[in-house]
Amino acid sequence: MKEISAKEVQQALEQGQAINLIDVREVDEVEAGHIPGIIHIPLGLLEFRLHELNKNEPYVMVCRSGGRSGSATQFLESQGFNVSNMVGGMLAWDGEVK
Fold it and tell me: Which pLDDT does position 30 carry in this prediction?
């Protein structure tokens, strides 16, 4: 499984790079604070919303601590997607939060 640090994601966003961030937390967690520009797909709905994703685009998975996003990363990899897990999740995030 490919991994990326929260710091690497933050630096890429600050440099203006477009990153497809998918937050797999539950609705109340995302409403409490999320990285601007995320795609919100709760982990339990991921398999039902695959049609919304493009296998030609890279994705970075995000959750609270990295566990659920790790599961999501493994699932999406098994479906042929180019995906990385943001290590440490939102607990490791020091960047902007909405």
Answer: 97
Dump pLDDT digits (tens) for 43-84.
999 999 999 999 999 999 999 999 999 999 999 999 999 999
Tell me which residue has tokens 């797909």: 41
DSSP state of 46: G
Positions annotated as catalytic residues are 63
- Residue 21's pLDDT is 98
Residue in this structure with the two tokens 């999740």, named with its chain if needed? 89
Residue 63 burial (10 A CB sphere; 0-12, 13-18, 19+): buried
Give dist(CA 76, CA 98) in Å, integer. 26
Q: Is 28 exposed, middle or buried (0-12, 13-18, 19+ CB in 10 A)?
A: exposed
Q: Please say whether the beta carbons of 88 and 63 come within 8 A.
A: no
What would the two tokens of residue 75 be? Answer: 């699932």
